[in-house]
Structure formats: C-alpha cells, structure tokens
Amino acid sequence: MKRKFIGERGTTSAPQVRKPRDVLYTLEETIEIFIRAKTAEGVRQGTITGYHDIFRYFQQWLDDDITNVNDITADLIRNYINYLRTERTPYAKDPQRKRSGKGLSVHTINIRIRCLSTMFRFLFNEGIIPNNPMKRCQAFRTNKSMPFSPLMTTGNSHNGVIRLLFYCYWTPAFESERRYH
After folding, report:
1. Which of 52, 53, 64, 104 would you call most buried, defined as having the most Cβ atoms within 10 angstroms of its Cβ?
2. Alpha-carbon gap, residue 150 to 159, rounded angstroms
3. Which residue has the higher pLDDT, 113 or 1?
4. CATH number of the domain to which 38 belongs
C-alpha cells in the first residue's frame, strides 16, 4: 500500500461561513425563541424569570425605533452598560428600598451583561443574527480589590473555622506540616 503524504490526502472542507437567515426577527420574537430553547434545555424557572426581567429592562431602555434584533450593535450595548453604571437609579420604583445616588452595582451590571451575552451568542449560533454584538463587550471591571480573609463567612462560625484551617494548611509557613503519602 502506497503511503499518502499531507499534500496528497485530498481536499479539506472549506471553513464554515455563517449565512444569515432571510427572515428578520423582532427583539420580542428572538427573546421568546431564546426562552423556549432554555426551557427545553432544563434551565431552572428562577433563571428563566431572571432572563425575562433583564430583557424587559433592556427593552425599556431601547428606543422605540429599534425593533429588529439586527439593529442592535456593540456600540448600543456599550451605551446601555454606561447607562446602568452612571444613570440608572437602583430601586427607582420601590419607595421602601429607594437609595440615593445613581448607578447599579458592578455585580448587577455583570449579571445583565452575562444574560445579554448568553442570548446573543445563542442567536448567533442558531444563525438568527449574522454577528454577535456582545462579542467585544466584556464584563464591567472595578479598580477596587477585596482582600482575602479566611474568616469571612456566609454562614455559621464553623464555616469560618474550616476556611481558616484550609488557609493555614496551604500557606508556606505550614509546608513542613503537610505530609504527602
């Protein structure tokens, strides 16, 4: 049997080029397609409710003339992120929880960015949109760094003791105490 060399192995398949669908979807239609797909994947109901809320907030912010999902660009998403960071008032409609100042927390903004990113990645992979506007939009960063403390607990003091022991075990000062079997 004759040995084949790389150049003789035949043609390789051409790279896949995503051909957008001929149908233009509205934002509402794409949200419903996304929600149906995530429900079929078995995503929890609390996550689905969160998706609905975040998409509703995004739609309220959008201009009324943007109805087609293909009209959403990376620049538009960045403007939305800046709005959340600087102009959006937290708990604006809840008089008991109303806070002074503007701008949502970094954690809240990142949750919304991840949700939109998940939806637009899904729409792109399904061929519903020709390009993903969230591809170059990244999570919001802050300059504040939170120091690690092994005693920070989210529950009872037992949890803090376990964290402290784990922290001490893996510090260089206790390296001689570790036994490798």
Report:
1. 104
2. 10
3. 113
4. 1.10.150.130
Contact between 66 and 72 (Cβ < 8 Å): yes
CB 138 within 8 A of CB 146: no
Name the more confident of 155 and 3: 3
171 and 82 both lie in a single domain: no
Q: What is the structure's pLDDT at 163?
A: 65
What pLDDT sits at residue 123? Answer: 94
The answer to whether 106 touches 63, Cβ cutoff 8 Å, is no
For every residue of 153-181, DSSP letters joined together read: -SS-HHHHHHHHHHHHHTSGGGGGG----
Q: Which helix (H) or strand (E) holds 53?
A: helix 45-61
Cβ-contact 21, 127 below 8 angstroms: yes
- The CB density around residue 67, as the number of other CB atoms within 10 Å, is 15
Q: What is the reported pLDDT for 92?
A: 58
